Amino acid sequence: MKIVRRATFNAAHRLYRKDWSHEKNDEVFGLCNNVNYHGHNYVLEVGIDGKIDPETGYVIDVKILKDIISNVVTDRYDHKNLNMDCPEFFDLNPTVENIAMVCYNNLLPHLQAYGKLSIKLYETEKNWVEYDGE
Ligand code: NI
Fold it and tell me: What is the 65 CA–ligand 1 centroid distance (Å)?
């Protein structure tokens, strides 16, 4: 049984490597390398595949899941500039892949007791990544 909770956050980012020239960053990252940043409305889906607790009927109480996602992800990233406000991205390019990996790794210790964690992170309606630690 898999339960999924959706959360949203808005954040700005710029894709570039500090150790590359502006020309190379432009070539590889194009518009995403805009020096004045740009924003996305991210949608995060956090899934837990686990067993139903026969006492409560829950895989996890959604209130608990909601609070964990708020503490670990949305309170940290909502209305932030990921490159400038969030130390985890000072030296890690905030691609949707890397953001998803960081979210997963930070959620895992709080959720692994309930089942197998997997996440989806949508950067746009057309682009998303899925990650389950593998
Ligand atoms: Ni972008």
Answer: 27
Active site (annotated) includes residue 13: no
**Number of domains the chain contains:** 1
Output the pLDDT for position 70. Answer: 98
| pLDDT, mean of each 10-residue run, the chain (134 residues) | 98 97 96 96 98 98 98 98 98 98 98 98 97 94
Token pair for residue 65?
């899941």
Q: Residue 103 catalytic?
A: no
**Residue 120: which CATH number?**
3.30.479.10
| Beta strand spans in the chain (E) | 2-13, 38-49, 80-81, 116-122, 128-131
Against a cut of 0.85, is the pTM above it?
yes
Distance 44 CA to ligand 1 centre (A): 15
Q: Give the active site residue among 32, 45, 88, 110.
A: 32
Quote the domain boundaries for residue 37: 2-131
